[in-house]
Structure formats: structure tokens, C-alpha cells
Amino acid sequence: MTSAISVSGLVKTFGQTRALDGLDLSVDTGEVHGFLGPNGAGKSTTIRVLLGLLRADAGDASLLGGHPWRDAVELHRRLAYVPGDVNLWPNLTGGEAIDLFGALRGGLDKRRRAELIERFQLDPSKKARTYSKGNRQKVAVVAAFASDVELYVLDEPTSGLDPLMEAVFQEYVREVKREGRTVLLSSHIFSEVEALCDRVSIIRQGRTVESGTLTQLRHLTRTAISVETGQPITGLPEQAGVHDARVDGTRAKFDVDSHELDHLLRYLTRFEVRTLTSAPPSLEELFMRHYGDELRENGVKAEATVS
Amino acid sequence: MSAFTGTARLVRLAIRRDRIQLPLWIAGTAVFVPIVVASVRDRFPTEADRVEILRSATESPALLVLRTAPTGASEGAMIMFSLLTYVAVLAGLMSTLAVVRHTRQNEETGRSEMVGATVVGRHAGLTAALVVVAGANLVLGGLIALALIGYGQPAAGSIGAGAGIAAVGIVFAGVAAVAAQITQSSRAANGIAAAVVGVAYVVRGLGDALGDRQPDGYTVVSAWPTWLSPIGWVTEMRQYEGDRWWVLVLPLVTFAASVGVAFALTVRRDVGMGMVPDRRGPARATPALLSPLGLAWRLQRGTLLGWTVAMVAYGAAVGSLSQTVQDALGENEGTADTIAKLAGGGNADLMDAFFAAMMAIYGAMAAGYVVQALMRPRSEEAGGPAEAVLATGTGRLTWLASHLAVAVGGAAVLLVAAGAATGLVDGLSSGGAGGKVLDMTGAALVQLPAALILAGFAVAVFGLLPRLAVGLAWAAFTVSLIVGQLGELLGLPQAVRDISPFTHVPAVPAASATALPLIALTAVAVALGAAGLALFRRRDLVL
Ligand SMILES: Nc1ncnc2c1ncn2[C@@H]1O[C@H](COP(=O)(O)OP(=O)(O)OP(=O)(O)O)[C@@H](O)[C@H]1O
Ligand SMILES: [Mg+2]
């Protein structure tokens, strides 16, 4: 499988701030890749380096086989970008802005443009200064999806979209994926990432802390189990990988490290399991676990936030 | 919290933002007094001279439209006849631009939404704008009154002139306050307010032209349309010829009423919205928009149009003045000397020296336009759409060069327009229009390389120090202007004057157009521009 984006050891500083601190990122061709991290983690900075808008201080980056800075113009014709803050020209209409971005990118599909405007319920003849935040966002999303490109770089594209529009957005991401195109999706919306992404990278303070498929990432964390048995459960808290166990005679609730799950189930069967429910960790829980330290420092209890 | 809480803080903020702009407007307007007084004294030293010229003036409706209905033959009345309506228009434009700047433009940029969420009352923003602008008009009026008194004019009439000008400026501030409420863009608000100033000027002109010529043969009592116009009110105060103070009631009542309307509208609409909804636009872009150059043109054309109108009007005014100036120059050595110094030409023909001085002003205006136009890329970059545009197939050089092309092309258009208007109007009144149009257009275009230097400088600082670019470019413009245009009058040493590009422009038509300085200026401009483009290509986008 070829790589659409490959970044290693990327460093970018702004004065004293080290926005990127040896970041790695690898996005395969044809996949939808989630890009997660708390505010200020460096997602937008990474994207701007990839787009040749910022120049990296150190590290290697390649995009569609080219160099993000040196080959910027040629690469830009093959990608579409939705910025995190969509700024339009106040006195141009949304329709004009869509056509303009399309043309500057090298042309856009008229039929698809019409369909997107219809699906996103955008009024293209309103001046941009009168658009709400969500509508400005739609202009950028429509302009991106109306372009015939290999790579979509989307920086929080749905912030400001209502749930209906979010669903339409997800449909289009699936469609471009079916067509074999690549998507890099930075997002704070876990359900969106879970629904769309083949793989995710989680970054923190300019560094990649986790990268892989959701299944792989889940493997690194805990599953919540609730069980009812025929005989009283004993010795559970002492089992390897068990956390926060609350045992009440024949009932128990606890979390277990995913790689100890098999061992634990064998242990439970000796008490005649009657019912058992297991909840795989959500992406949100994964995320919270990574930032648990930070949250605790700020006086927030990770588990409390999760449930 | 009252609706006015926080006004004082906003007033200080507005004064800080305007600390350069408003003083320039005030000085640029008040400077008409010494110029006109000198001209009146040179040309019409005796009452008999003044009666004679006013007799012929009252026979020319066109002249009455442009100036005003003469009210008497005293020196003071003659000064008013020569200057009052022009100064009133300038005070009006200063006021409308400033009010819109501190109200609608703040809303447009989202500044007032943030300010409004802090502890300021609903009316604080508009009140602060009006306080600042009223203050500016009072300063202007005070300066005018003092200057006239200093020239030995009767105190009553001089104060009447100052008060009348201040009042007219304040009325237009009220007009702009309303315009800022009913439109959604500052451009539209500026347009409406400036149009009201223009209409006021023309309506007064009609009233004066239709007025009754009195039996003395040199005074005119204006017809009723004059009374409909704020600019008419200041002339109807009849400074030095009866001083009708009660007329001041009209501007004050109008101001109070319009402010009341503006406040009422503020309550009825939401922040950021207007009363007149934005018109809808095309759902599809025209092919002309769909390129970096097309986009730059679209973003810049409104500014260019405004400047073109202003420069054609100014050029026409200069052309129409040339005959008057010619008479004045024939008689007074002092003025001739001043003009010759301004123009930088030694013993040249005085008329040519006058035109050369005017060309230098056109050059300064063109340079001002260029600097304004080249600040657009910076605002597109800082929190604007440039990020998204530069992530398309548009290269940085293409993007910046497109704005540069519009700015430089625009400056050339402005100089041609001003020069042609000067030549045409001068030619129509004194003959030989065709030749004069060509001469004056050529003379104006000689100024282009100086404007190019400032364009190059603006691009260079944009490439090197984007965060400081706006301040540095305007500072360079101001310094060039002061050092170059006034350096000799101020007695600055040549080495200092040489830093201004304006110093090096040949004083055409007083001097002949020598190629070497023009080529040198252009070469420096190109070098600066190229450096700016190269630097911009190599730097981070600064959002
Ligand atoms: N132009 C700049 N100058 C100085 N610091 C900057 C600049 N741009 C970004 N930073 C800093 O770099 C860090 C990373 O910012 P970035 O915008 O990449 O975060 P992000 O992950 O996109 O956050 P968010 O989720 O809020 O969008 C932050 O600490 C930010 O303050
Ligand atoms: Mg971001």
C-alpha cells in the first residue's frame, strides 16, 4: 500500500512555543485517517506544514510523493483543503467563492457542485458576510468535494454543522473513499471519527502518542464488563488486568485491560456465568485515557467525564 | 449599566486609532485658509477690485454652482466666497469617514461584537464615534476661526466661519451615523454618506445659481433650495456681512434629530446586521473572477473607483483654478516664490511651476492609493481567506503579483485621470484642450515612479515583517511626503530630502522630464518589489 502522507520527526517552533516536537504521521492512499488531539496539540500546524503554508524547522514530510514546500503548487492541484477557520470574502457570494476555489484548484464538476449545494442546503446567492459560521463551513466543504482530487485535507470540517449536515458530510466522505481517494480528517467529534476512519493518529503537545486502527487502539485499553454468576465471585480484584472492581456477591462490575480479556473470561466461568455484558471502550474513552494525566492535573476525574 | 456605559473608554480607543488620520484631515482642510487669503489679497487688494470680479461672477451661474452666492465685497466675504463650500465638503467627508470607521467598520470586523460583550452600553460605540468626530470638527472650526482672526479679519465673522464649518461637519457626522445603521457594509455606509455630502453641495449650488441678483449688481440672495442643504446653511450665515447666528440652529437641530434616529435604529437592529438587508448576488461566478488577477481586481476595484472619482474631481478643480492662479501669480512675487519652491523648479514659467506643484500632489495621492491597495494582501493573510487560496494551485508569487499589478495599474490610471481632467478643464476655459490634455497627462504620469517606490517598499515590508507591514508602509508614505513635498519649505538639508522618492521626480512641466531619475526610481522600485516577492515566497504564512 502506498503512502499519501508520510511525516517523521516534524518540528515547528513559533518563538518559544514548540508547536510540533518530532511528530510522525503516516496516511495510506485510499484511507480515511482521523487526526485527533486536544486544543493546541498541533493538528492545524501539521496540516499547514503539509500544505506548504508553514515551513518545518526539522523532520521529513512527503505528500502525494512530493515535497510539501518545494512542490507546493503542483501538489495543491491534486488536493482540496477545508481550513479550521473558514474565512470568505464578505462581498462575494458563497456560489462565487465555491467557483473561485474550484477554478484555482484546476476546475470543478458542475453537476456535482449543484448536487452538493442541494444536499447541504446552501443558498449560494447570499453574500458571505451574511452567512452563519455553519454556512461558511458548508461553502468550504462544498468547494472541496466538488473538486476532483486525490487527497482531501479537512481541518475540523464539521465544527458548526448541525447533525443533519453532519450526516450528509459523512456520506460524502464515504463516497470519496469508495472512489479510492484519501482523506485526512482532523476532528474533535469522536462519533464522526469512529464512523468514518480506518485509522487514527492521536497527538499531544506536538508528538504522536498513538496511531493505528481503532481495533488496535482498543486493544491497548480496557473493556467494561458487567457479569452475573450462579456462585459468589471471589478473588476478582487480584486478577491481572482488573481495575475498579465492585463485587456484590454474585454480581460484579469492573474494567479489564483488553489483552487480559481472554484470561479473565476463563477465570469467570468457574462461577457459572449467567449473564455478561461487555462494552468495548469508545474512542472518547481512549482519548480520555491518554489525556488522563492532564485532566487530573486540572482537577477533572477522567472516569467521571467518560461515563 | 446604562446604555452609555464605557463610552469614555471607547472614545480613548477611537482617538488612539485616529491619532494620525484625523490630524492630517484637519490640517489638510485648514491649510486652505492661508492659501486663499494670500490669493485674495494678491488678486483683489481693493474693494473696487472685488466688486468688479463679483459683478462678473454673479453673471456666471456655473461659478455660483461651484462656489456660492456672494454676500458682499469685504475682504472677509471674498475669502468666504472662495473657500467656504470646498472646506465644508472636506469637513463633511472627514466626518462621515470617521463615523463609519468607528461604527459600521468595527461591526464588520467583529471588533464591536467582542467589545459589546464586555461592559459597554448599547449606545456607547456610536456615542464615542460622535464625540470624537464632533471634537475633530470643533478643532477644525477653531483653527479656521483663529487663522482668519490672525489674518486681521473681524472676529465675529471669523468665529462664524469656524462655527459654521464645525456645524456642517457635525451634521454630516449625524448623517453617517444613520447610514451606518441602515447598511451592512462600511463601504456602503461610506458611499451613502459621501453621496449625501455631494447632493448637499449640488442642491446648494442650484439654490445659489437660481438666486436673486441684488440691485448693487455684485451680491446674490440664494433661492430656497440652498436652505435645504447643510452646506447652504454655512454660507447663509453670511460671515462678515451681517453674521446671521440664528442659522446655526438648523445644523444643530438636524444633528440632534439624526442622532436620535440613529440611536432608535441601534435599538431595533442586531449587532452586525443593517436595516437594509444585503442584496443577493450571483449564485455563479463570472469567468472574469476565476483567476488570481480576477480576484485581486474584484477585491480592489471599489477602492480604485473611489480614488478615481476623487482624483478626477481634484484634477478638474485644479484645471478650473488655473486662470485664477495665473492672474494672482502675475501680481505677487511671494506666492510665486512659494509655488516655485513647492514645485522644485527654479526660474521656470510660473504657471508651469503651479502645475508642477499640483502634479506633485497627484503623485502623493497616487502613492497613497498604492499603499492602501497593497495593504489588502496583508488583511487577506491575517485572518482572511489567503490561507485557503494559497492551498490551491495558486502560487504565492502569482497571488501577490496580482495585487501588485492591480495597485500599480491603478496608480497609473489615477494619474492619467487626474492629469487629463486638469488639462481638459483648463483647456475648455482657456482654449487648446486637446494639447493640454496630452501635456497634463504626461506630466502627471511622470509621478508614477515615485508611487512605484512606495509600492515596492510596501511589498518588501510585507515579505519581511508582515505583522508590521501596515504601520511601516504608511510611515514610509508619510515621511516621503513631508520630506519630499515640504522639505525645501521646511529648510531640510538635501541629504535628508534625498531619502524621499518625491524629491527625485522631475518637476514637469516646470522642468523637462529627464529620463535618468525616472529610470533610477523605477529600478529601485523593481528591486524592492522583487525582494518583497522573494521574501514572501520563503516565509511562513502569518495568520
Ligand atoms: N502563528 C503562530 N504563532 C505562535 N504560536 C502558534 C502559531 N500557530 C500555532 N501556534 C501554537 O502552536 C500550538 C499548536 O497549535 P495548532 O493550531 O496546531 O493546534 P490544534 O491542534 O489545531 O488545536 P485546535 O484543536 O484548537 O484547533 C499551539 O500552542 C498554538 O498556540
Ligand atoms: Mg486547529
Mind explaining what this structure looks like?
- The complex is a heterodimer of chains A (307) and B (543).
- With 307 residues, chain A is of the alpha/beta class.
- Chain A has helices at 43-50, 72-76, 94-105, 110-119, 133-145, 163-178, 190-196, 214-219, 261-269, 283-290, 292-297, 302-306; strands at 3-14, 17-28, 32-36, 58-63, 79-82, 151-155, 182-186, 199-204, 207-213, 222-229, 242-248, 251-257, 273-279.
- In chain A, the strands form 3 sheets. A 6-stranded mixed β-sheet of chain A has the order 5-6-7-3-8-9, sandwiched between helices. A 4-stranded antiparallel β-sheet of chain A has the order 11-12-10-13, with helices on one face.
- In chain A, 43% of the residues are buried.
- With 543 residues, chain B is mainly alpha-helical.
- Chain B folds into 2 domains: 1-278, no CATH class; 301-543, no CATH class.
- Helix content of chain B is 73%, strand content 1%.
- Chain B has a two-stranded antiparallel sheet with strand order 1-2.
- The chains are: A alpha/beta (307), B mainly alpha (543).
- At the A-B interface, helix 2 and helix 3 of A face helix 14 and helix 18 of B.
- The complex binds adenosine-5'-triphosphate and magnesium ion.
- The site of magnesium ion has 4 residues of chain A, from helix 1.
- Magnesium ion is lined by residues 43-44, 84, 155 of chain A.
List keywords for this structure.
heterodimer; A: 307 residues; alpha/beta; Rossmann fold; Alpha-Beta Plaits; six-stranded mixed β-sheet; four-stranded antiparallel β-sheet; 12 helices; 34% helix; disordered C terminus; B: 543 residues; mainly alpha; 2 domains; two-stranded antiparallel sheet; 73% helix; binds adenosine-5'-triphosphate; binds magnesium ion; transmembrane (chain B); transmembrane helix (chain B); Exporter of polyketide antibiotics (chain B); membrane (chain B)
